[in-house]
Structure to design on (557 residues):
């Protein structure tokens, strides 16, 4: 548990904020796919911490990025934090994505909405370790497509919007890159219905596939057993056994 | 520095602060955050004779100043606890207490018998108040006769500290407390969660998979405090108070109302170090008011 400070709050749109946090102490080692439990202060209706994916870590500048969508009062309050404000985090929590066995693997990262958050850090990590990445990012319209220029630093970016205002029109799961390329590894984070379609596609083309789940949580450290998902090993906590799961372990009807 | 030692029946506590079952795992989950030996005791996750998968997701709903849970006693069973968990927790320098639940009296008895053999487990908390399982649990805790029957049966096989955790979902909690005291309970802990419900109006569906769940957090504190006060005046055995304790001031209120010790529960989810802050805060309070020992303020509420 650590008090971090807001270095900058970049309002990406009226719906999304990118919080750039820093600390006088050196950040711990954080793995792509891990998350933080963020305490929400000054919100009478918010009792629990909010689990937020770690969007990016820059060890040189000692920065940790959190991409936050305003959903309820808790996340709205987080999006209103100002430079210098304290933000208390329990982190890093959970497991991480796993590297493909072979550096020649064709890798695809599929994100929808705010679900792109952990994929930026994972894409940067893959890139740094010599893997070529393809990103397929979707949103309702152009204003819901986030951090495109950041993703472009680490690989090819394909986009879809439901209104056609950026990239191909439709859902990520309808993008032409899925029919023209054969991917070996697929990583996805976003709305569950989207991830299920991506998982079904991965199963069909026999790609290895990991999904990052976003179940509602209380403690984040495996104590309350509230965030479980049904797996081949029974109910497992998303906070400690996940949030990243290989689709072969989940009991999804796909 | 005041004397924080206090005894609960046969249990010797270095301080009155313990962590509530279901909110603290088995203890080691929190060892990255705090020194476990600084608290008076740890009530481990609710354990049953046989493994339980618990209820389907979603199991949690945030509510104003609290939360509902419907975990449903997910655990790997008492044998797993004995073989795999006990060796990892037995040397923690605090009281490790097992919260025990069952669907039949025979289940409670069989598991209690096994736990009685564990040298480093000085007591059990008989959970007759879980609102989240279909059979057993709360069914035992909501009538005097069934509460008395299960305590009587367990008492014959369990020789160490027998704490009975009471349900607030009753008309008169003091009657239940008196019933379990009469059958040999060494102490009572209260309150378990209050039966509640949350609805997603957009979807016109309940939020929890089980429709109803157990409410905890500061929202329940005034009710818990009132019940602790009522029970402490009714029984002679020690009372352990819990329900929405978020800080030392809350803990002290329970002690003034008659609790000899307290449990910190849901607050562990928001601040994993909160139990230590409660210990330090109680000490500060005693020093500030010139009390030598925490025992000096148990039940001294002036009315």
């Amino acid at each position: 548990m650590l008090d971090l400070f807001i270095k900058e709050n970049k309002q990406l749109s009226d719906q999304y904020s990118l919080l750039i946090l820093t600390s006088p102490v050196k950040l711990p080692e954080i793995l792509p796919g891990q998350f933080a439990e963020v305490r929400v202060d000054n919100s009478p209706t918010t009792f629990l911490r909010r689990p937020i994916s770690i969007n990016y870590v820059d060890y040189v500048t000692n920065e940790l990025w959190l991409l936050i969508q305003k959903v309820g009062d808790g996340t709205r309050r987080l999006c209103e934090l100002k430079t210098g404000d304290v933000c208390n985090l329990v982190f890093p929590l959970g497991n991480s994505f796993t590297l493909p066995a072979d550096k020649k693997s064709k890798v695809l990262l599929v994100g929808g909405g705010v679900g792109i958050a952990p994929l930026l850090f994972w894409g940067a990590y893959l890139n740094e370790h010599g893997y070529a990445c393809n990103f397929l990012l979707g949103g309702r319209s152009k204003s819901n497509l986030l951090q495109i220029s950041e993703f472009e630093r680490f690989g090819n970016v394909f986009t879809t919007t439901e209104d056609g205002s950026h990239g191909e029109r439709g859902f990520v799961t309808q993008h032409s890159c899925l029919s023209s390329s054969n991917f070996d590894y697929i990583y996805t984070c976003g709305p569950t219905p989207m991830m299920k379609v991506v998982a079904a596609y991965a199963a069909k083309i026999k790609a290895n596939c990991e999904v990052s789940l976003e179940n509602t949580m209380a403690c984040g450290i495996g104590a309350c057993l509230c965030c479980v998902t049904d797996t081949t090993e029974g109910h497992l906590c998303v906070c400690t056994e996940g949030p990243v799961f290989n689709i072969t372990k989940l009991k999804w009807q796909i | 520095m005041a004397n924080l030692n206090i005894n609960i029946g046969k249990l010797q506590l270095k301080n009155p602060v313990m962590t509530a079952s279901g909110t603290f795992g088995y203890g080691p989950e929190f060892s990255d955050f705090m020194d476990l030996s600084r608290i008076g005791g740890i009530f481990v996750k609710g354990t049953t004779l046989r493994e339980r998968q618990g209820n389907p997701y979603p199991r949690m709903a945030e509510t104003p100043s609290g939360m509902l849970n419907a975990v449903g006693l997910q655990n790997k069973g008492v044998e797993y606890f004995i073989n795999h968990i006990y060796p990892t927790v037995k040397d923690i320098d605090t009281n490790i207490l097992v919260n025990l639940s069952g669907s039949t009296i025979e289940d409670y008895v069989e598991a209690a018998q096994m736990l009685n053999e564990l040298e480093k487990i000085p007591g059990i908390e008989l959970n007759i108040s879980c609102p989240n399982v279909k059979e057993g649990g709360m069914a035992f805790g909501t009538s005097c006769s069934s509460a008395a029957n299960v305590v009587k049966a367990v008492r014959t096989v369990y020789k160490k500290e027998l704490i009975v955790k009471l349900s607030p979902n009753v008309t008169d909690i003091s009657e239940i407390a008196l019933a379990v005291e009469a059958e040999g309970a060494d102490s009572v802990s209260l309150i378990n969660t209050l039966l509640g419900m949350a609805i997603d109006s957009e979807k016109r569906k309940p939020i929890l998979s089980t429709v109803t769940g157990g409410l905890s957090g500061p929202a329940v504190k005034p009710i818990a405090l009132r019940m602790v006060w009522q029970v402490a005046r009714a029984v002679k055995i020690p009372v352990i108070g819990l329900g929405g304790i978020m800080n030392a001031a809350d803990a002290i209120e329970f002690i003034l109302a008659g609790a000899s010790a307290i449990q910190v529960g849901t607050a562990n989810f928001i601040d994993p170090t909160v139990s230590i802050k409660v210990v330090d805060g109680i000490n500060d309070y005693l020093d500030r008011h010139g009390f030598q020992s925490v025992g000096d303020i148990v039940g001294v509420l002036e009315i």
